[in-house]
Amino acid sequence: MGRPYLAKSVRLGTPLPLTWHRGRIALLAMIGGAVIIVGALLPWISLFAGLQAYAGIRGVYGRLLCGGGALSIIGGVWFLLCGGLTLRWALGVLGFVLLTCASWLGLALRQTLAHLAADPLLLAGFGPGLLFIVLGALLVSAILFVESD
Known about the structure:
Blueprint: H1 2-10, H2 20-41, E1 43-47, E2 52-55, H3 60-82, H4 85-116, E3 125-126, H5 129-141
Antiparallel strand pairs: 1-2, 1-3
């Protein structure tokens, strides 16, 4: 007799009704995370006028940023199902941390390319990957500025 009453009063695992605000926040997290993962897979630097490109996933920082993008997608799905102010702030802070890391890596990459420019045969250049990561991190960190219910 006690169990049906407990299940009705607690209602474990019942998702909140879906609203447009919660869906918008979840969509920002999922799209931003996907853009970050694509940016980690794209080349960050190219040598010999684009003949040899190095993707960000080859290095530790690229893998960490890719993992942050995957975490953002998982958090977006979780927010879509359950919602919550704490999860929303966690996703926004994750986006800000990813944006800070990507910006720091952009400055380091710029210094590296300045050193590689001394050799005229390398013809080093930027790849689009880090710009995608910055764009995705901006999308995820925009969660903090979206209107809520």
